[in-house]
């Protein structure tokens, strides 16, 4: 009898704790999910902090672990093309696999230059704060459906973060409208399509396409260097978690300041434990853009 009681306790223990178990893929959806969950959920992130996200795929062990979650939240099929297969492999029901961008129209092409269009869609939708707000709402809707007892709290948490994104949007609009320059130079890949579209900016990158897989050609770098001189830029932006070598080399040629612009694909271990959020990254980006373009 004692054994049976113990067994029953063991089986019911995770449910008794009452926490929704949410597994997320990369940092943006991790941050949105934990903000919505607000301590009522166990939210984890698959990608190890500090690693490149486009080339990331979960390990067989991580895939096996997916079977234990209530919800699996990802960005969109262009950011995590492996998601469906992994979810199927782990036996996660399709209804519990949440595409946070499901109702967001993803942009095609790259930076209005055919060179950068590899036929796929641009996965970086989260960099437009209005999209981030919508992703938050989508995630909250999934949480509410899965855990109706806490629906009210999820809705409240989501509302607060959505409001913060809309306030940031207004701030960015106001700040950027005062910029004297509207073009920036970025020594990283094409991650800012949604952001520049929202705020009427443009940017130049020597990379090809929506991921940092291929090193830029010397020709592309030389073209960018010429553009920097022509525009009279004073700042070159470097990408998070990417070697600063290219930004440093371009900076040395033109006596430029190197500042970081983070597309928030992932964060360092230190930033993660320091409490960085998608919103705090947006704010830091805006400050750095202001330094270069005002
Ligand atoms: Zn990217």
Structure overview:
This protein is of the alpha/beta class and 294 residues long. The chain folds into two domains: 11-167, Nitrogenase molybdenum iron protein domain (Rossmann fold, 3-Layer(aba) Sandwich); 170-293, Nitrogenase molybdenum iron protein domain (Rossmann fold, 3-Layer(aba) Sandwich). It is built from eleven helices and eight strands. The protein has a four-stranded parallel sheet with strand order 2-1-3-4, with helices on both faces. Strands 6-5-7-8 form a four-stranded parallel sheet, sandwiched between helices. The longest helix is centred in the middle third of the chain and has 27 residues, at 151-177. The site of zinc ion (ZN) has 8 residues, from loops.
**What is the CA-atom radius of gyration, in angstroms?**
21 Å
CATH classification class of the largest domain = Alpha Beta
Which structural class best describes the helix and strand composition?
A: alpha/beta
CATH fold field value of the largest domain: Rossmann fold
Instruction: Kindly report how far apart the N and C termini lie.
Output: 74 Å
In DSSP terms, counting alpha (H) and pi (I) runs of 4 or more, how many helices? 11
């Amino acid at each position: 009898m004692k054994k049976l009681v113990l067994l029953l306790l063991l089986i019911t223990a995770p449910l008794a704790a009452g926490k929704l178990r949410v597994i997320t893929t990369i940092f943006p959806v991790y941050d949105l999910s934990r903000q919505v969950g607000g301590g009522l959920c166990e939210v984890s992130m698959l990608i190890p902090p500090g690693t490149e996200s486009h080339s990331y795929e979960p390990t067989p062990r991580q895939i096996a672990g997916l079977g234990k979650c209530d919800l699996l939240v990802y960005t969109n099929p262009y950011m995590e093309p492996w998601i469906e297969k992994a979810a199927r492999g782990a036996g996660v029901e399709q209804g519990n696999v949440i595409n946070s961008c499901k109702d967001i129209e993803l942009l095609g092409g790259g930076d209005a230059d055919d060179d950068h269009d590899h036929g796929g869609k641009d996965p970086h939708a989260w960099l437009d704060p209005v999209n981030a707000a919508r992703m938050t709402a989508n995630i909250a809707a999934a949480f509410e459906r899965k855990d109706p007892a806490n629906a009210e709290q999820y809705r409240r948490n989501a509302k607060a973060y959505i409001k913060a994104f809309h306030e940031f949007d207004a701030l960015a609009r106001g700040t950027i409208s005062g910029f004297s320059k509207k073009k920036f130079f970025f020594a990283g890949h094409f991650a800012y399509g949604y952001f520049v579209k929202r705020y009427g900016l443009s940017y130049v990158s020597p990379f090809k396409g929506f991921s940092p897989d291929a090193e830029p050609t010397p020709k592309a770098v030389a073209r960018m260097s010429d553009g920097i001189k022509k525009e009279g830029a004073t700042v070159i932006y470097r990408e998070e978690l990417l070697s600063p070598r290219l930004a440093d080399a371009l900076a040395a040629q033109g006596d430029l300041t190197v500042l970081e612009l983070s597309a928030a694909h992932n964060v360092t271990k230190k930033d993660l434990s320091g409490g960085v959020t998608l919103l705090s990254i947006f704010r830091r980006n805006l400050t750095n853009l202001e330094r270069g373009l005002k």
